Give the backbone structure.
Amino acid sequence: LRDYYPTVFQPAPEANPVNLGVRVTSSVSGTITKVLFAKSPTNLGTHHALVWNASGTVLADEVFTNETPTGWQELVLSTPVSVAAGDTFTVGYSQPQTGFAYGPYFPSLNVGPLTISSGYYRYSSTPTDFPDGSVGSNYGIDFEFMPTDTLPTSTSSTSTSTSTSTSTTTSSSTTTSSTTT
């Protein structure tokens, strides 16, 4: 959703906790490194960043910190989530009250190797409950995905050096030689 910010937000918070997500399929292997969501002034409370696999198993669950009252909120995952080519996953967030972004469209349904299927929701007071109710909204959710072929690689090399020194000590009656490698 780079350079996009939702313009429609649910107008007032309700007392209904909700988990929101965007379902995506990747054609390449890669890593999910960040979760973001667009926050309105009515989106209150503690928010969890989440990543689920296709069957609803939680792959990442971390709490957003240092949130601002509005705008994009960003969480860098302490342990990035690996995704294999062909995997479907859901990235989202949970909140104790509703007041989320919504809209009937996505800026694009295909972004590089990623295909977005839809936005999903689940009303639940358990932050990790899998959002399985489908709706066409993206809920103002974004994430950072790094394809494996673009990840920095590190190489290490081991070098072995050998040195040889010979020392000779001469005394009046004895000569001693030693070699060190």
